[in-house]
Amino acid sequence: MQIELRKPEFVMRLDRLGSFHQSKLSFLRSFIREFKDWEFETKELELDENGFGHCVYVVTKDNKQYSLVCFSNELDDSERSDRVIATKWDASFVLFDGIPSDQDINRLKANVPLQEQGRVTEKELCLSRANKSVRVFEHVVDRLAQGKQPDTDILYNVGYLYRTTAVYGSGKFGLADRIKIQDRGELKGPFRLEMMLVFLARQFTFDMVNHVAHQRSPQNAVKLNDDIARNLGIGNSTGLGMAPFIVNHPALLNQWIISKEKALLAIRSIPNTSQKEKEKFQSYLSTIKENIKFWKTDSEYQIKKNLHLTNDLEKFQNYFGKLDIEKFFWNTVYEWAEINTQAECCELIVSLLMEVYPEIVEPLSYEMSIDEEDYFDFDTSRSIGDVCALIEKRYAWLVEIDFEKKDNIFNFWYYSKNKQEPRMSDRFSEDGAERELPLAIARDINKLYLELKNYPKKDPLSSYLIKNQEYRHILRRIFICEKLPYSEIQDNTISKSLIPVDMLRLKLSFFGATRFDPRSDRWVRITMYQGAPLMKEIHQSDDTWSYKKIA
Amino acid sequence: MHSLYEIETVVKRVARYQGLSWGIAEEAGKTVRALEQSALPGLERFDRLISFPYSKCVREINHKEKNQKYLCPIHFGLFFLDQSHKPDNQLTFQFSNILEPLLIIPFLIKAAQKNLISFDFKSNEFKFFIGSGKIISLDTNKIPHQSNDITLEISNQRIKQYSDETWDRLYNMSLETFVEENEEKKLLGAGAGLTDND
Fold first, then answer.
1. Do B85 and A170 touch (CB under 8 A)?
2. What is the mean pLDDT of chain A?
3. Which terminus of chain B, N or C, has less C-beta within 10 A?
4. Could you give the ipTM of this predicted complex?
């Protein structure tokens, strides 16, 4: 049987991309797989009785070392804000390349708590900050100080003790450029350092509650039970600033999506399935049905999606439970899901399928990076007719859109001076459209296409470029899409009907986030590493932790 | 010091602010980044370029017009990057004046590598040659802020940089890694014993 990759015009629609779930390809899981045989150590825990001070965690293998330096500062409740414009946080983190000297720690102490307002150097790799979930933090410390474990109902409703609000890397604020680390074997996967930072920061949150509880009551205090701790992740609030990333990095996006599609294709192409494999899939399915109950959200949009998911999973369970194993069993299962369930459920089933076949999926996680520089220049000797044909082939979905209509150009993306991040606004009622960021891809490709139609087909593109450079950035991505067909979101990112949270969800699912809790159509709270092994047990991880029951 | 990412991003945004299209602004960011990565003063030269002021720079390159002055090096470099795929054997262009010629170099390096051509840049103040390889050298003390009476020669002929004697000596030495076959083995190779006139 010849089974093909799902087509880009099916996969790359935003409602499907915005329904992706974490999987074996997710970066926080591939981080744990890559680093499970490294040594993790708490090197310094210099905290006062209130938990203020600094800690250092070191990750080592052979002669390679990375250190997370954490600073914990006093923060008045009135100053606590998850917004990117905040200037103070309960905790701030920096991932250091090697082991920091005392001099380094002093330098970092003066800069890292300031985050965007401070400066770091090329010795540092990633920067982040986090705020306490005050209610949960206080509850946990209070109970531990009394010699009791916390109430897991309260804990698991939130899912974490601290929430990060940004994780910066790749040269921002003076951090090391990616070029410095890109050839290191252990970092051959996207966002691996960012994932390391968050994993170690999670350990810091546990050490913090244990320390403060002990300081409050040295005689009575107990440590947070490992089973409870393991089911806590680290939270994250993410807004529009993250959305343009997937538009600005088309080659990278292709690598993420094609890896998933290759995995699905390979699984659908397996001719013979064993009963054991079917049972394995069923066990993951049963667990996730239970864990979904802990996905809390007030967002009507997500409540509706979760409800559809729950109903679709029931429907799927009825179908799957009665299904006998036949040739190309998983292809039959997938095709049924594609036809009979909505994207949210269908993509969850794709993620579950990947769990059954680590030998197929895990090697693909090494194909998810790409040198984007290789795709920057394009061939100007290509004919204009070639370029038009390419647009008709790869961008057929946008050729017919009427960009004179207000709803189709309703929004514009801009870089906020105050928030130092990309934002989106209504072009017709708000100022700033003249400073629009180049994220109106569909509109600009459409304009370029209509313009090129006026030039002789046989002329080389270089002739057009002599006097026309307005769409150079667009030409670049058209040639990327020719080689990498999963590089482009096939939806209009400036239309009135755009749901930006879908763009966030796409990226966060590849990070490995769970418990999507959109707080509006523009920002979302999620949890990372919930259920993951603790730092001291990482070497025992068999990468099945994502599908362990939370409670 | 700022990271290369910061340098590229700031230059891209400034170029956009100066009225360049996003595509050219991206090229400007990459060019300055490449120069800084090579320990050349790309950012300073870019700053001087836009302070000229940039509105006075000529951005439309007309390669047939000898008297063009105050040419923008970004547009100049981009012109040759875009246009040098054309298969003419040898071309010579003349221009009157170009600003901050350092900024054209990353474009010409890319054009040379992509099309296997060379650029021979000569002006009153400054000369450089770029072949299709990856190594170039510049006397960084001699890079002017403007170059006048420029001749740019493009060639797709590699220039031989060594003598025949050097080649013969090295070639003969390379033969020392080969094994001499005896007469019997020579008769067993491909085609041995057959007539090649069939």
1. no
2. 93
3. C
4. 0.87
B4 with A177: Cβ contact below 8 A? yes
Sorted by where each begins, the domain ranges of chain A are 1-22+253-512, 36-239
In sequence order, which ranges of A72-158 are alpha helices (DSSP H)? 102-111, 134-145, 152-158
Q: Are A348 and A540 in contact (CB under 8 A)?
A: no
CA-wise closest residue to B144 among B105, B97, B100: B100
| A interface test, pick of B14, B16, B22, B64 with most A CB neighbours within 10 Å | B22
- Would you list the DSSP string of B141-177? GG--SEEEEEEEEEESSPPP-S-HHHHHHHHHHHGGG
pLDDT at A111 over 70: yes
**Confidence at residue A88, expressed as pLDDT on a 0 to 100 scale:** 85
Domain count, chain B: 1
Q: Is the CB of residue A271 less than 8 Å from the CB of residue A327? A: yes
Average pLDDT over residues A191-198: 96
The encoded tokens of residue A54 equal 């600094």
Chain segment A46-55, per-residue pLDDT in tens: 999 999 999 9
- The confidence score (pLDDT) of residue B112 equals 93
Q: Residue A156: pLDDT band by 50, 70, 90 thresholds?
A: confident
Residues of B in contact with A121 (CB under 8 A): 1
What residues in B contact A470, CB-CB < 8 Å?
21, 23
Domain boundaries, position B37: 4-155
How confident is the model over A25-45, as a mean pLDDT? Answer: 96
Worst-scoring range by mean pLDDT, A15-24, A230-239, A508-517, B175-184?
B175-184
Query: Which of A73, A75, A69, A131 lies closest to A106, judged by CA?
Result: A69
B85: nearest CB among A170, A172, A462: A462
Nearest to A369 by CA among A182, A167, A172, A179: A182
Please write the tens of the pLDDT for every residue from A539-551.
999 898 888 776 6
Q: Minimal CA–CA distance to A108: which of A178, A95, A40, A98?
A: A95
Residue B185 reports pLDDT greater than 70: no
Question: Which of A227, A236, A224, A232 is closest to A156 using CA atoms?
Answer: A232
By a Cβ cutoff of 8 Å, what residues of chain A touch chain B?
121-122, 170-179, 376-377, 379-381, 415, 438, 460, 462, 465-467, 469-476
A496-517 average pLDDT score: 90
Paired sense of beta strands A524-528 and B90-99, if any: unpaired
Q: By the 8 A CB rule, do A42 and A372 touch? A: no
B23 and A460 in contact by Cβ < 8 A?
no
B23–A472: do the CB atoms touch at under 8 Å?
A: yes
Q: Is the pLDDT score of A250 beyond 80?
A: yes
**From the candidates B68, B82, B83, which should be mutated to test the interface with A, based on the most A CB atoms within 10 A?**
B82
Structure tokens at A163: 């929430």
The pLDDT assigned to A86 comes to 74
What whole-number distance in Å separates Cα of residue A21 and Cα of residue A43? 35
What pLDDT, on the 0 to 100 scale, is given for residue B197?
A: 58
How are the residues of chain A apportioned to helix, strand and coil, as percentages rounded to the nearest 5? 50, 15, 35
